[in-house]
């Protein structure tokens, strides 16, 4: 079982990712795809006159502030355009993919955080009306049913709160929780960089290996959204996933390249 997470930033080649997945799926591998959609969500939000607001937590993590209107735009893009675009690509390649959000069947479940602490202009503030959370529980029954039926699941945030409210969750950490729950052999976190860079954005500074017991010490090299990927990798290996690979989704055969050791390998 391999869980593949592909991000939503500029430069990602979804055709290449899907073509590679299709080849491996037809060869008999069990795969699940989790995807993002941040870049397109930002574009659509700007076009709709409700531009994104990104906030930084006291611990230095950057995330999207998700009020109700933002959540609705997020769902429109992630569950609609991005999810169905990927499912269509896979269907055209002969793979019977099924696209679902973490809200469907409560695949991803967690606690709703209505307020968030942020640092702005050097001051710590509390923002209310947030629709975010963290995946604390993965309900695998629906996933198992799809896999047993020969379908390739294509999953995306949002998740469900315990009260059934849609919540924006980090896709990398959701994929990590999924990989742990399914006892996956590997988790691939594919984005628009070749892996974790020691001196971002210098791609020649790629860190090729990270010892599983030492993942969190590499957080200092992670910039912006890469911090969540490193955190997700730490959670995955702590949960028993044997290998986590930060790979490049911009061209070629991204899944096969990552599984072959290209990128940053955590093991």
UniProtKB/TrEMBL annotation:
Its main location: cytoplasm. Its EC number is 2.7.2.17. It is found in: Cytoplasm. Substrate binds at residues 64, 168. It catalyses: [amino-group carrier protein]-C-terminal-N-(1,4-dicarboxybutan-1-yl)-L-glutamine + ATP = [amino-group carrier protein]-C-terminal-N-(1-carboxy-5-phosphooxy-5-oxopentan-1-yl)-L-glutamine + ADP. The record marks 5, 229 as: Transition state stabilizer. Pathway: Amino-acid biosynthesis; L-lysine biosynthesis via AAA pathway; L-lysine from L-alpha-aminoadipate (Thermus route): step 2/5. CDD domains: AAK_NAGK-UC (cd04251). Keywords: Amino-acid biosynthesis, ATP-binding, Cytoplasm, Kinase, Lysine biosynthesis, Nucleotide-binding, Transferase. InterPro entries: AceGlu_kinase-like_sf (IPR036393), AcgluKinase_fam (IPR004662), Asp/Glu/Uridylate_kinase (IPR001048), Glu/AcGlu_kinase (IPR001057), LysZ (IPR037529). GO terms for cellular component: cytoplasm. One of its GO terms (biological process) is L-arginine biosynthetic process. Residues 1-246 form the Aspartate/glutamate/uridylate kinase domain. Pfam families: AA_kinase. One of its GO terms (molecular function) is N2-acetyl-L-aminoadipate kinase activity. Catalyzes the phosphorylation of LysW-gamma-alpha-aminoadipate. NCBIfam families: argB (TIGR00761), PRK14058.1-1 (NF010659), PRK14058.1-3 (NF010661). Belongs to the acetylglutamate kinase family. LysZ subfamily. HAMAP family: LysZ. This is [LysW]-aminoadipate kinase. The lineage of its organism: Bacteria, Thermotogati, Deinococcota, Deinococci, Deinococcales. The gene is lysZ.
């Amino acid at each position: 079982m391999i869980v593949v997470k592909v991000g939503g930033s500029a430069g990602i080649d979804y055709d290449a990712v899907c073509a590679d997945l299709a080849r491996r799926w037809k060869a008999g591998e069990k795969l699940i795809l989790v995807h993002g959609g941040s870049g397109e969500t930002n574009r659509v939000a700007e076009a709709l006159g409700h531009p994104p607001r990104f906030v930084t937590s006291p611990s230095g993590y950057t995330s999207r502030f998700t009020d109700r209107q933002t959540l609705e735009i997020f769902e429109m893009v992630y569950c609609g355009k991005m999810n169905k675009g990927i499912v269509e690509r896979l269907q055209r390649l002969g793979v019977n993919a099924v696209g679902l959000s973490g809200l469907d069947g409560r695949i991803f479940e967690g606690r709703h955080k209505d307020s968030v602490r942020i640092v702005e202009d050097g001051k710590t503030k509390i923002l209310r009306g947030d629709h975010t959370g963290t995946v604390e529980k993965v309900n695998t029954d629906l996933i198992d049913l799809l896999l047993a039926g020969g379908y390739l699941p294509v999953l995306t945030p949002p998740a469900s709160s315990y009260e059934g409210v849609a919540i924006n969750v980090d896709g990398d950490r959701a994929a990590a929780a999924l990989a742990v729950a399914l006892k996956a052999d590997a988790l691939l976190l594919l984005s628009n960089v070749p892996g974790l860079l020691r001196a971002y954005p210098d791609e020649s500074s790629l860190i090729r290996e990270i010892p599983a017991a030492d993942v969190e010490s590499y957080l200092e090299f992670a910039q912006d959204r890469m911090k969540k990927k490193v955190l997700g990798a730490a959670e995955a290996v702590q949960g028993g996933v044997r290998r986590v690979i930060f790979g490049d989704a911009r061209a070629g055969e991204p899944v096969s390249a990552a599984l072959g050791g290209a990128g940053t390998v955590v093991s």
